[in-house]
Design goal:
Strand content: 25-35%
Largest sheet: 6 strands, antiparallel
CATH architecture of one domain: Distorted Sandwich
Organism: Homo sapiens (Human)
Protein name: ATPase phospholipid transporting 8B4 (putative)
Distance between the termini: 33 Å
Keywords: Signal
InterPro entries: ATPase_P-typ_transduc_dom_A_sf
Structural class: alpha+beta
CATH topology of one domain: Calcium-transporting ATPase, cytoplasmic transduction domain A
Number of strands: 12
Helix content: 25-40%
């Protein structure tokens, strides 16, 4: 009937529009994630530097960064092109600050320089805090060559930073993927509802309620009609 048509068609239209919008949002979100995961860094594998996707970087890998490159994981700075193992990083993606920050390697590791064979033979062990979202704090100990060395935030380069004013540096992955401080700060995705989303929800609820009322009214009228027909057909009348 016409009543059924006017109830269902608007409801289907509203639900379809909502589904298309959500699907579009999901597509662009996944596309952005894939772009990040498919970024490449130079990783020391079998004593050779090889390009590796960010998604495949794991704890213990030694990575080479060059000037203006994004950092793929939370790294312990081992050595750099600058004197005394210094390097400069931009942390705008982490804390919004555009001024450069200085990081410096331990003197015992800065001696490794860019010597691939020595870096490949690095067998230091890091014991540190569990993954957390504190961007300005880090506590750990590096055990290497029968010595222990304290680690703090100034020895660490975090994922999301950009290497600046430094030709190159090497670092060992401490946290990767969801364990990085950047990802720990992301937490669960919070979906912000726009005014269009709220309007869609209101329309869907209104259409459902309207459909129930109309269906209920039609049922009552149908039932009333049946009773009338039964009364008219009753042999006692």
């Amino acid at each position: 009937s016409l009543t059924w048509f006017t109830t269902i068609v608007p409801l289907v239209l509203v639900i379809t529009m909502t589904a298309v919008k959500d699907a579009t949002d999901d597509y662009f979100r996944h596309k952005s994630d894939n772009q990040v995961n498919n970024r490449q860094s130079e990783v020391l594998i079998n004593s050779k530097l090889q390009n590796e996707k960010w998604m495949n970087v794991k704890v213990g890998d030694i990575i080479k960064l060059e000037n203006n490159q994004f950092v793929a994981a939370d790294l312990l700075l081992l050595s750099s092109s600058e004197p005394h193992g210094l390097c400069y990083v931009e942390t705008a993606e982490l804390d919004g600050e555009t001024n450069l920050k200085v990081r410096h390697a331990l003197s015992v590791t800065s001696e490794l320089g860019a010597d691939i064979s020595r870096l490949a033979g690095f067998d230091g062990i890091v014991v540190c805090e569990v993954p957390n979202n504190k961007l300005d704090k880090f506590m750990g100990i590096l055990s290497w060559k029968d010595s222990k060395h304290s680690l703090n935030n100034e020895k660490i380069i975090l994922r999301g930073c950009i290497l600046r004013n430094t030709s190159w540096c090497f670092g060992m992955v401490i946290f990767a993927g969801p364990d990085t401080k950047l990802m720990q700060n992301s937490g669960k995705t919070k979906f912000k509802r726009t005014s269009i989303d709220r309007l869609m929800n209101t329309l869907v609820l209104w259409e459902i309620q309207s459909g129930r009322v109309k269906l209920g009214t039609n049922s009552e009228l149908s039932s009333f009609g049946m009773k009338e027909r039964r009364a008219l057909c009753s042999p006692d009348s």
